[in-house]
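Onboarding guide, step 5: your first structure request.
Type a short instruction followed by the sequence, for example:

Predict the 3D structure of this protein.
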Amino acid sequence: MGTLKIDRGYNRYYLKYDGMNTGEAAIWAREPLSTTSTTLRKHELLMTLSISTLRFAAGVSIFMAALATNANAQIATLDKGHQIFVNNGLQIWGLDTSDDYSLDYNELQAGNMTAVMWTTGQAQPGNLTAGQKWGTWVDDKLSPSTALDADGIAHQNDLIAIQVGDEQQTDIEDPNGHTQAWFAAAHAGNYFPNTVLYTNSFFIANQTNYTNYIANANPDAISWDSYPFSNPAGQYISSTNWLALGNIFRRNA
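The system replies with structure tokens like these:
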């Protein structure tokens, strides 16, 4: 047994689990939490990996969504994003960026991946069978009501996540931009109630604007990507400071 503590962090409360042999795991939540300590069995901690990092903890290829369903003395309710990951467990997505090659979902599963993620315009959920999870990027300039084609609608029960646009940081931080309008329409129409809706960034241009985006658009998750091992080294970001950048996104979670 380990101890699940609730502490005050930088502009956020966070849960801290001290009972892991490999060290401490932090769990970030958007809403203030109770300051009551409780316990959590080690096997009940869900650590989530993905091709993209989501808002729960920013990093190049890791995010966390925790609070298992059987923990003692739970928070009353979880937000939508955390609840989806609690329900679905560990996530490792394989990114499919080209339709030049056919997808072998069995091979993907053999690699211990839990879903395929398609880039914009590449999704082929019609090739999947019931129960095979998938996700897709969508155009942030279009309406969430038209984000899926007929095949996507037919397989919506297995749609685990939607990334709205990709690295459109100027628009993300624009209160009158396409991205915030997309999320406003998604919330108003109650589109995708069982799907994680998130955006991906490469950097933050203006911290105040980005903070306002999260508050106003209320995405289920945020992600960021970078290339710390580019050639030549440091072309985009050095391998020695990408964790610092990840911590900046973590603080926005």
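Each response can be followed by summary notes, for example: The radius of gyration is 18 Å.
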